[in-house]
Amino acid sequence: MIISDEQWGTLLETRVLHPTAIAAAHASRHRRPILADDGATFIIAVDHPARRANGVGDEPLAMANRRDLIQRTMTALADPGVDGVMGTPDILDDLVLLGALDGKVAIGSMNRGGLQGSAWELDDRLTGHDVASIVEQGLDGGKMLLRIDPDDPNTRPTIEACAEFITGLANAGLMAMIEPLAYTSSNGRAVLDTSVDEQVRCVGIASALGSTSAYTWLKLPATNEIERVMAATSLPGLILGGAPGPDPASAFDEWRRAMAVPNVRGLVVGRSLLYPPDADVAGAVATAVQIVHPS
User: Residue 227: is it exposed, middle or buried by C-beta count within 10 angstroms (0-12/13-18/19+)?
Assistant: First the structure.
């Protein structure tokens, strides 16, 4: 998918001269169910830059060119097997103005304030969509990141905030997609804890947040013991892609294995597919589509 100079120029001019066009475009978007007819869903994740996370592999600013990022995202969304996208307000506003969200699921990213590498990283504040804006814009749900380090007091306010967001989304009858991850610290910096035992504990915490779990979905990594992780909850799970690795085939194999778990209902993947090693976004997305929606 190529964004022409004319399309990009029109987008830039619209943002300057006709800002109300964004609300109008959201209001006129054709909505659809989160799940496809086969009971699964495939969502593209595009909320990384808002958290100071622009890197892909050895390129620390790979996601910094907005036109390139939107173009890659639109390439992914052009595949009919991709059900939707999860992103921050700026990303979703660009996509809706370009007509890329019509007939797609759109999930708003809520807490992006725990900037990567910051001293307050685990105090992940609401800086993106809130419940009111998700409802007003006709989005299909909201996503939260919940990194849990029992030794970091910044975890506490994030747990409380996520519980509040989950309750608010449930009251509106909308999906609350929460990504609970175990974290620890190394040299004063927050780092992912890959222990399966700790991930199981995080699942238990996230599953119980809010006044009801009726609309809560979990976004989880495809660990080598994903069956044990998903056995810790009855909630539906979506598998995240994580940072791209040197061997894309192994990631695809992990996703295939995870999709066999009964309460795993799809993928939420971003950088791994938008910035594949061979630069073939459409090809990487097509492979993932066959994992979620095998023909």
Answer: middle
Whether the predicted model's global pTM rises above the 0.85 cut: yes
All residues at 6 or more sequence positions from 240 whose CB lies less than 8 Å from its CB, including other chains = 45, 179, 219, 220, 221, 222, 267, 268, 269
**How far is the C-alpha of 193 from the C-alpha of 148, rounded, in Å?**
9
**Mean of per-residue pLDDT scores for the chain:** 96
- Span 116-140, average pLDDT: 97
The secondary structure element, H or E, covering residue 176 is: strand 175-186
Amino acid making up residue 35: L
What span, in angstroms and rounded, lies between the C-alpha atoms of 217 and 146? 13
142: β partners: 108, 176
Phi, psi for residue 141 in degrees, rounded to 5: 165, 180
Residues 61-78 pLDDT 10s? 999 999 999 999 999 999
Q: What is the DSSP letter of 154?
A: T
Confidence at 1, pLDDT banded by 50, 70, 90: confident
Yes or no: say if 148 and 182 are a contact pair by the CB < 8 Å rule. yes
The Cα 201–Cα 294 span in angstroms is 32
pLDDT band at 44 (very low <50, low <70, confident <90, very high): very high
User: What domains are there in the chain, each with its CATH number?
Assistant: 5-292 (3.20.20.70)
